[in-house]
């Protein structure tokens, strides 16, 4: 991404698109009973509360009535339908992991089978987005968690802790290409959850080969444990290398969430918050998803940035936009054209 002399001036930045992740599949209801929704009505109301607080993107997971993370696509359909009716302008972004929580004590925390994840392209009603990882990596969410941050939660159970410590994200090339094909056929926009530069480079190759033809909505996920860590040099290099036309959100974990979100908003990028990312504030106290959203709204206003409403967020994300060719996709996302046969040096972008 390019930064001009006035790129940090709020009048030259997009409005802030706040993503809320309020369902927190890694936590059990007893970890934060005041904020973890269980019934379908409560889960729909959680989306409404987040929207009214200022979030326009809902990162969606679902729970069963016993409080466990749901792996039932019919439950996803029910929640999507409820949210669509209650807050029609909100961008519904289904978490591509479905639910990575262990089903029982001592069981592995793992993503579901490739075939099950592919079925996210068949959800009815359709979500606006499904998140997709690029490249198989370790996803050890415990690496950046301090003991005092998770004291008293289900993650303190040795079996659960070990399950999350050993978790991986399966996202090999065959699965990624097939999943992108199915999402595009269904006109569901992928939202790319990228773990570092290697993921961004692979995504660019997919675009250059015509495997994906659409807008680039990216989230840099700085949670450590196989992903980039929350070192500012990591995400600044990622930002520098991201295509000029991409829409970029920064995401992290626990006490890293707020400082990274603050830097994102100052740079003209977008934040993500919610109990999936952190249960606590900077002082270690429980902080609800709605409280986190309201905090970001206040900070955005202090920085001089307005917060996008639902329709404005859809325009920024280019929801329902698709491209007809590799060249059109490259140009729309601000990427250098592919090299023509016999062409020397770096191909210049068209005027």
TrEMBL record:
InterPro entries: Aldolase_TIM, BKACE. It holds the Pfam family BKACE. Its cofactor is Zn(2+). The keyword Zinc applies. This is 3-keto-5-aminohexanoate cleavage protein. Gene3D superfamilies: Aldolase class I. Keywords: Metal-binding, Transferase, Zinc.
């Amino acid at each position: 991404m390019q930064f001009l002399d006035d790129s940090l001036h709020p009048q030259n930045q997009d409005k802030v698109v706040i993503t809320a992740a309020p369902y927190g599949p890694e936590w059990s209801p007893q970890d934060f009973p005041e904020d973890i929704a269980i019934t379908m009505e409560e889960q729909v109301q959680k989306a409404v509360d987040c929207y009214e607080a200022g979030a326009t993107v809902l990162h969606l997971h679902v729970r069963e009535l016993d409080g466990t993370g749901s792996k039932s696509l019919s439950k996803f359909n029910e929640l999507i339908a409820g949210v669509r009716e209650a807050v029609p302008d909100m961008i519904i972004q289904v978490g591509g992991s479905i639910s990575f929580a262990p089903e029982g004590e001592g069981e592995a925390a793992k993503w579901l089978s490739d075939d099950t994840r592919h079925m996210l392209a068949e959800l009815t009603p359709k979500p606006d987005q499904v998140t997709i990882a690029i490249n198989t990596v370790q996803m050890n969410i415990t690496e950046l968690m301090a003991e005092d941050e998770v004291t008293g939660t289900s993650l303190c159970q040795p079996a659960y802790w070990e399950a999350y410590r050993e978790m991986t994200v399966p996202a090999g090339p065959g699965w990624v290409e097939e999943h992108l094909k199915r999402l595009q056929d269904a006109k569901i926009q992928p939202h790319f959850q990228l773990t570092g530069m290697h993921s961004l480079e692979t995504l660019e190759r997919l675009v250059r080969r015509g495997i994906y033809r659409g807008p680039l909505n990216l989230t840099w996920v700085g949670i450590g444990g196989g992903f980039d860590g929350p070192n500012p040099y990591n995400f600044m290099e990622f930002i520098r290398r991201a295509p000029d036309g991409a829409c970029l959100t920064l995401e992290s974990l626990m006490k890293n969430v707020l400082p990274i979100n603050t830097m994102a908003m100052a740079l003209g990028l977008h934040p993500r918050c919610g109990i999936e990312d952190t249960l606590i504030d900077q002082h270690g106290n429980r902080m609800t998803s709605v409280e986190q959203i309201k905090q970001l709204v206040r900070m955005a206003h202090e920085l001089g940035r307005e917060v996008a409403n639902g329709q404005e967020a859809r325009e920024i994300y280019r929801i329902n936009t698709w491209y007809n060719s590799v060249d059109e996709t490259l140009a729309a996302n601000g990427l250098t054209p592919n090299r023509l046969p016999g062409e020397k040096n770096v191909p210049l972008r068209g005027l």
